[in-house]
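Person: At home tonight, work slowly through the protein below, taking as long as you need, and write a paragraph about the fold.
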Amino acid sequence: RDARYAALARLAQDEGASLVLLAHHRDDQAETVLLRLLRGAGVLGMAAMSEVSQRDGITYLRPWLGQDRATILEAADAVRQASGWQAVQDPTNADPRYTRAAVRELLAPVLDGRWPGWRAIVARHAAHMAEAVQILDEVARDDFARLEPSADGVSFSLKAWRELSPARQAQVLRFWLHLNGARMPTDARLRDLLRQLRELHSLGHDRQLRVVQAGHVVRCHRGRVWVESQG
């Protein structure tokens, strides 16, 4: 997946393109929700893929998220008959050795037999989660503004953060990490970071706090929590 996006980004940059259209569809969205559910994803993860996203300086659009795979394949076949152009099929898409393909080839047929409309239902669930994410982001943005953040957003007041409820402490921490381009920590790592921050001296003089998170470092100094890139 990362390699595909890297290749798309290189091609877009070579061609001077800032927008890339992806062919993800409703079936892909439903599979993504199931996979993230099985991996224990939170609200953000359950929102699955968005219609618009940013990555490596490129804007990706997914105009077919509301279309099912069968409809797209019918259209592709019509194009083939009219023009001779043949759609390329990735053989790994049907290889159950890969997790997503296992969901598609082994689990999906069982769900089809019991709940024929499950893909639309699960995709609708993702849309509801996306709305919830938007609300949580708005709350986190307001909370972060009350933490005496630095002008560049890389630090905030530990004392002000500790006045939030535990749930809002966690949410604003996720917001802050995302704001600074840090990859989201696993649930276990986030809980550990929360524990360490809560146990710090209220003035933040415990300089032992130094948590590395996917290329970024979170530390506390003189009552403020900082994040910085290791690079």
Observations:
- DSSP finds nine helices and seven strands in the chain.
- The radius of gyration is 22 Å.
- The domain at 1-127 is CATH 3.40.50.620 (Rossmann fold).
